[in-house]
Amino acid sequence: MKYLIDSNIFIYHLNGENIASVFLQEYQVQSAISRITYIEVLSFNYDNIEQENEVKILLAQFELLELNQEISDQALINRKIKKIKMADNIIAATAQVHNLTLVSRNTDDFKTLDVNILNPFA
């Protein structure tokens, strides 16, 4: 595993952004998602159950990293460094604990944390 995909990359893909789609396709085997990303992406209102099921199938192609004590502890350390939204913090902590590069377009959210970030749009 090399990458942890942030929720916004999936949202850009679902909205037809080619850069996000190409990244997901090319690096799917090397990528994982956090439980938080799974929840965030499936929290959107989809047009119908078929569309929601297609998103579930897409997400199932990625290794799913669960929240655990080590990630929780890292999120608490991160919180002392920067006040960041809890979901973003847990995603960053997941990348840190698993030594993965976080793939996100929202690099400003994470820049003061000790996490490798890749913005495929840059």
Itemize the secondary structure elements and their pairings.
Elements: E1 3-5, H1 7-14, H2 18-27, E2 31-34, H3 35-42, H4 49-60, E3 63-65, H5 69-81, H6 86-97, E4 101-103, E5 117-118
Parallel strand pairs: 1-2, 1-4, 2-3, 4-5
Helix pairs in contact: 1-2, 1-3, 5-6
Question: How would you portray this structure in words?
Answer:
- This protein has 122 residues and is an alpha/beta fold.
- It has one domain: 5'-nuclease (Rossmann fold, 3-Layer(aba) Sandwich).
- The chain is 52% helix and 12% strand.
- It contains 6 helices and 5 strands, in the order E-H-H-E-H-H-E-H-H-E-E.
- The protein has a 5-stranded parallel β-sheet with strand order 3-2-1-4-5.
- Helix 1 packs across helix 2, helix 1 runs parallel beside helix 3 and helix 5 packs across helix 6.
- The radius of gyration is 14 Å and the shape is globular.
- It starts with a strand and ends with a strand.
